[in-house]
Amino acid sequence: MSNLISSFLFAFLHFFLLIHSKPLAPALYVFGDSLFDSGNNNHLPTLAKANYPPYGQNFVQHFTGRFTNGRTLPDFIAELLELPYPPPYLSINESITLSGLNYASSACGILPETGSQLGKCLSLGQQIDFFQSTVESKLPSHFKSSKELSNYLAKSIFMLTMGSNDYIQSYFEPTLFSTSQDFDPQTYAQLLIDALSKHLERLYELGARKLIMLEIPPLGCIPHYTRRYELTGKCHEETNQIVSFFNSRLHPMLKNLTSTLRGGVFILAPINSLVYDLITNPSKYGFTDTSNPCCTTWANGTLSCIPFLEPCPNPNAHFFWDGYHNTETGNSIAASLCFNDPEFCSPISIRELLQI
Fold first, then answer.
1. 3-state SS of the chain: helix, strand, coil percent to 5?
2. Which helix (H) or strand (E) holds 103?
3. Low-confidence residues of the chain, pLDDT below 70?
4. Which of 47, 82, 149, 210 has its CA 20 to 30 A from that of 168?
5. Distance CA 98, CA 78 (A)
6. pTM of this prediction?
7. How does pLDDT run across 255-285, given as a tens digit for each residue?
8. 110 near 163, Cβ under 8 Å?
């Protein structure tokens, strides 16, 4: 009950701030996978959905399609920006909000084929297609000139997380996809980075100037993998090593875009090292369990929550909500660090980005 009360209190405070203050940025636009999805997959024919309890147990609107117990990382960033939570794009009918939209879709990835075995999802390319439609067809009527629209987009914040499913749903599934036979880990990582770079350049061409990109988390530490392997520590380090080839290439690629695309600032959020530290040093962050999912999941804690079963009594003392995703506490820690700490996100914090 205390978790529910605190969720309503946060919602009230968020609403109070929205009506009594000016946002720090005009809008927040979100792209990504299930870490950021706020309900787009509810509108798609797919098995990858979270529109049932116990998902959203600690969120004021309950099971909206968020793959956690409460707020996602972009939700916390929206609060810090004093903006409303960006609604899922596929839930919008006619009029759109000028405070941002969420295009993220669970199970999808950087490559267009990723996630197809679970049904329909929006690949990163398709998400940017929808953003292009927003920019070209829906936003112009709200602005007096193209220059005013460009200024609005240039001052808006863009957040993106993508790549996890290109490993979980593809590279680490050799019975379904041949990617691990076709590419060694380094070559596959470069393939993803090259494709991601083109997508980010396209967002820039559509008007994005301030973008925060998350690393892929340490996938070898999530229950989906830790419960499959014999471990010497808390994580399956071979899985983490394969993912590290992507992350080690991500920072140089973002630095290159910042230096070559005039006026663009591409920020790296080093989520991988943060999550690894959270999991291996739980007491440092106030967690009591960083190994087991809080909800009862399918396949012995390795998959999504089983509908309507009661989760653990104190979700935010757990790092993991289900076999893949963390509770909102981890999202809150990451959001606060990237927003406020100039030593965390690189090269600058979101707060510093707002001054540009």
1. 45, 10, 45
2. none
3. 1-20
4. 210
5. 13
6. 0.94
7. 999 999 999 999 999 999 999 999 999 999 9
8. yes
